[in-house]
Amino acid sequence: MDMMEQGELIALCQDLLATRSYSGEEKAVADLMLSFMRAKKFDMAYTDEYGNVLGCICGKRPGKRILFDGHIDTVRADNVSDWHHDPFGSEMDGGRIYGRGATDMKGAVAAFLFAVERFARLTNRDFAGEIWVAGVVHEECFEGVSARKISAAVKPDLVVIGEASEMNIKCSQRGRAEILLETYGVPCHSSNPEKGVNAVYAACRIIDRFRALPPVEQEGMFGKGIMELTDMKSEPYPGASVVPHYCRVTFDRRLLVGETRESVLAPLQAIIDEMMQEDPTLKAKVSFTAGEEKCYTGATIAADRFFPAWRVPTDSDFVQAIYKAVCDMGYQPRLTGYSFCTNGSHYAGEAGIPCIGIGPSRENLAHTVDEYIEVKELLDISRYDTAVLNAMMDPVTAID
Fold first, then answer.
1. Span 332-374, pLDDT tens digits
2. Which of 36, 211, 234, 289 is least enclosed by beta carbons within 10 angstroms?
3. Residue 71: enclosing H or E segment and its boundaries?
4. What is the CA radius of gyration of the chain?
C-alpha cells in the first residue's frame, strides 16, 4: 500500500469507530458500510432482514465463494469517565487508534473491506469466483445466530472470521453453552420451614452433584469442557419471611469439538433423574437458556444459547495455501485456535463450512476501557486479507 492507500484505510477505520453501534443499534454503521461499498462499485451491497450488511464483488471467471465475516455491533461504553480517549472519538495517539470496537472488531472490518476493494481494483477483477463481505449484527448477544441468514444467502465455500487473532491463523474454536437449572419448591412462612420445600436448598444439592462430575476432556488445544456457575436467583425476591418456591441457576459451559445439545445435557439430566427418584419432594429440570433481542430493522432474533466448537485440520490444502501466501509476504503466523466464541460457531460448527480466523490485535483488549488497535496491525491485517485472496481467488497477478 502506498501512503494514500494507508491514509484511506486508517480513515475508514476511524469512521467506523466514530459511529456508535451497540447491539440492536447498528443502522448507522451499516449505512456507512453500504456507502463505502456502493462508492467503490461493489456488484451487490444490501442489508437483510436482521440488518446484516452484505456486499459482493464478482470475478471475471467462475470459482469459489469466499466470505469475510466481521460483526459490527459492540458492547457498551457507558463508563465514559474512565476512558482517557473518547470511546467514539476514534483518536489516534502513539501509533494507536482508540475507540469502542477497535479490537472487537471494527478494525478488522475496515481492513477486509479495504483489502477486497483494492484487490478487485488492482486485478481488474480478473480472478476466479466471488468475494463477499459481511457486517454482522447482534454477535455480542448471539454468536453465530444472525450469521445463519448470511450463510443461507451466500453459500460460501470458505469463511474468514476477522476476530482478534494476534496476526495468527486460527483453525479452531472452543464453543459455549449457557445451561439453566430450575428447581421448584413449596412456599411457606420462614418461621415454619418444615411446612414447605426450599427450592434454593434443592438447587444447592444438585449443584454439588454437578460439580462432582469430571469435565469432558479432549486432546489438543481445547483443554477441558469446563462448567462454571455464573448466576443464581430465587423467587420471591426479596424473600422476607418466605421460603423460596423457585430457584434459577445459570452455568457457563465451554464446549469441545463434537459435543451436541444432547451429549451436554445427558449427564446432568441423569443426575437429576437419580436424585428425584431418591427424593420425591425434589422437582427440577435442566435446559439451555434462550434469548430474544430486537434488531434495528424491527425483526426479532431469538435462539437457544448453544454455540458449537469447531476445528479444521491445519494440514488442509486451503489452510496451507493461505499460510504460505502470508509467509510469502514476510509474516510468520502460528496456526492456533480461539479460546472464545465467534460466528464460526455457525459457519463451521453448525453448517460445516471451512472456516479460519485472521484478525488484528489481542483478544484481551476487547470490551476494555481505552480499547485500541495498533495502526501497524491495521495495515498488516489488510495485507493478510490480500494474501488470502491471492491464495484462494486465482488472480492473474498476485497483489502485494
1. 999 999 988 999 999 999 999 999 999 999 989 999 999 999 9
2. 211
3. strand 61-71
4. 24
Query: Cβ(347)–Cβ(162) under 8 Å?
Result: no
> Residue 219 above 80 pLDDT?
no
Cis omega before residue 267 (within 30°)?
Answer: no
Q: Phi, psi at residue 354, to the nearest 5°? A: -55, 140
DSSP code, position 365: G
Say if pTM beats, i.e. exceeds, 0.70.
yes
- In whole angstroms, what is the distance from residue 17 CA to residue 87 CA? 8
Cα–Cα distance, 360 to 382 (Å, whole number) = 9
Q: Whole-angstrom Cα distance, residue 370 to residue 94?
A: 13
Closest CA to 357 of 160, 156, 63, 120: 160
Secondary structure, 3-state, 168-204? CEEEEECEEEEEEEEEECECCECCCHHHCECHHHHHH
User: Which residue do the cell numbers 461493489 mark?
Assistant: 42
Q: Could you give the angle at which helices 27-39 and 3-18 cross, rounded to 10 degrees? A: 150
Cβ neighbours around 332 below 10 Å, total: 8
Q: Which element (helix H / strand E) includes 251? A: strand 246-255
* Angstrom distances, CA of residue 355 to CA of 244, 258, 322: 47, 16, 12
Bridge partners of 245? none
Contact 372, 107 (CB under 8 A): no
